[in-house]
Amino acid sequence: MEENKWLPWTTNMLDDDLVKKVLEVYQIKEYKKGQFVFEQGELSDQIYLLLQGRIEINMVSVDGKKTIFSIHEPRCFFGELIMDHSPRLTSAVCLTNVTAAALDSSLNLGSDYYEKKLYQALFYSTSRKLKIQIQQLSDQVFEEAEERIEKLLLALCKNFGKEESGQVQVDLPLTHQMIADLTGCSRPTVSQIISDLAKKDKLSMERNKIIFKKHP
């Protein structure tokens, strides 16, 4: 199976130098687990740099169905799509307690050098997320549910897995519902497919942990 290069779970996209400069200029905000940093439909002119915690970017349809577009770990931007001053298309909800820097749309850092670095980092971040969305759309159109789920779990293993005693463990707060929201499947479908993968002795899921029986 082809690896999912554009994994919708991002981390550590900025260097120390740029993070330090942003912290000198912009306000730091604290959020509690479950709190929204921003919500779908609201107007805002702020871009956020995640410093601590974990953020989920999602969209909810009029009938209440949720899709997760991405999950971010520290040193990632989120909320970048504000330049046209239209309402936000997505919500950002805290999966843990969160610390983030709130940047205004001027992106003023008082230095041409750092502003260039900031624009480059934002361009990279936005481009990468666009590729993630294209990958997700492609997977949902061209692949069956089992392929999408196994591809996501394999990519998480390769990016976050730690090998112990011949097994690869991924310690992430990943539920069947979250996998469903990331892959465009129903939760019962995810549960059935993970059960089938476990019967094939490929993996098992415990609380906040995926265990791959053999290294993919």
TrEMBL record:
Molecular function per GO: DNA binding; DNA-binding transcription factor activity; kinase activity
InterPro entries from the UniProt entry: cNMP-bd_dom (IPR000595), cNMP-bd_dom_sf (IPR018490), Env_Response_Regulators (IPR050397), HTH_CRP (IPR012318), RmlC-like_jellyroll (IPR014710), WH-like_DNA-bd_sf (IPR036388), WH_DNA-bd_sf (IPR036390)
Pfam families documented for this protein: cNMP_binding, HTH_Crp_2
Domain HTH crp-type per the UniProt entry, residue ranges: 143-216
SUPFAM superfamilies reported in the protein's UniProt record: cAMP-binding domain-like, Winged helix' DNA-binding domain
Ranges where the Cyclic nucleotide-binding domain occurs: 10-104
Protein origin, superkingdom: Bacteria
Gene3D superfamilies: Jelly Rolls (2.60.120.10), Winged helix-like DNA-binding domain superfamily/Winged helix DNA-binding domain (1.10.10.10)
Protein known as: cAMP-binding domain of CRP or a regulatory subunit of cAMP-dependent protein kinases
UniProt organism field: Desulfitobacterium chlororespirans DSM 11544
